Amino acid sequence: MAKRRLFLAASFLIGSALATPAYSDSVSGYDDVARPSARESTCAGIRGNGQNLFAHYGALARHVEEYGAITCAAGGSSGSITAFFMESMWANELTHVCGRNGRACSARQRDARYALLLKSVVGLTNAGLFEDVDTVGALLAGISGGNIIELLNGPLPEEGVEALIRLLRDLGPLINPEVIELLLNSPDPVFHATDIIDGLQKGVQFVVDDPRVFLRTSVVNFDQFATLLGSYGSFYAGYGPTDERNFRRWLRRCARPSVGLTWEQTAALPGAGGATCGENFTALFNAYRERFATEGGPNRAVDPVGIYFPAFGGSGVLLGDAIALWEVARAAWINATPIPFEPDFADVGVGYWGNERELRRMERRLNRRFQDLVSRQFTPLGSASWREVLSSSPAEPGFSPAVPLSSGFVSVGGWADPLRVQPLVALRAESVIAINRLGGGGGFTADVTRLLNASEDDLRDLYSTVDPASSFFTGLRIATGGW
Asked: What is the pTM of this model?
């Protein structure tokens, strides 16, 4: 085992100089950007980790510090958020330029800055992030505090519906207006209110035990969520009203001393202007957020996926006959006459957004090299904005119904293909690492797959940690290494 670890560590030491992208303060297209190719890159396959997504950033930062920059990423669910942030950080000129006269950073200086930016995502929890996005927790607390479930089960259940509507209206822009409209116009508002609450309570525990998880109207406005994440990406990319002087001072003062440290340790380091590095970051982010809200600026969510380096969002998708079955079942649920949703698992794919040329290369080489089930399920979704990815891939069953996509497919959440290694290997990346939590495929992933009528053989072929032919086993075997 020790020799195996040594081999994996040694194989990360690629030592290659990576191309530096061109920059713009405005949203750009592919043709305007010089970007690293996958062959020049260490690629990261990032497994979604729900509310624990902050664990991604320490792992990624440590890799960047130890072995060099990661300039290629694929992720689904919360992993798509991480891939978006990574690309945004790479886009920032200050990641690459260390001198006021435009002097390029050395590779070591650049990697220290990139790692600091990755760690700082943890610091968003102290800089107002949850003030913006902790809507679900506030909703559940309001349901409990307002005795809404008791009202729905009481002699006048309409009072429970009215109380739920009032609560939803009070909770701000991240509440989906469609759920309020549904409750106001439903043929059976008590059914819808009860079913939505039941699904939400299970969703926060990642319990999926009924195909209605693909049908229930979401209480979260995922499009607004994507816009919010896009503004955070704009901050990291240096778009719009950036305080470039103080951002540069923060990087110059805090990046190199933070190497090898956690964010908590980094935040306590002495920063610029007599404050700590953590205080500098909080001030930068909150000032940017206030200026962005009043002055506006380009939102990174509008950018195409993979504009600054090879990046890919992923999601499970319904294909073929499953789309029509879902449309009928969804309409029946809205009419409060639910019917079974029973797709054929053969009509479920693993979708990827990204640069279309790279997606074609992935598909061609996957077909030639790999025979595992997740590789056979590969479905290119074409080029799209990060907004489409961030409003659909994190919209997991339990929090959102399936989401129609611009490609014509229907997203059922980013749980599919948790490792995302085979497509990156198919790109012939210099190295491919798996960012994975402990354990195998996980109960949530397997449960969603079962609800889409996967057989036990399908589950083994996808997620087995002991069958060498399974997709999960194959991904771990062919990855350069894992964190």
From this structure: 0.91
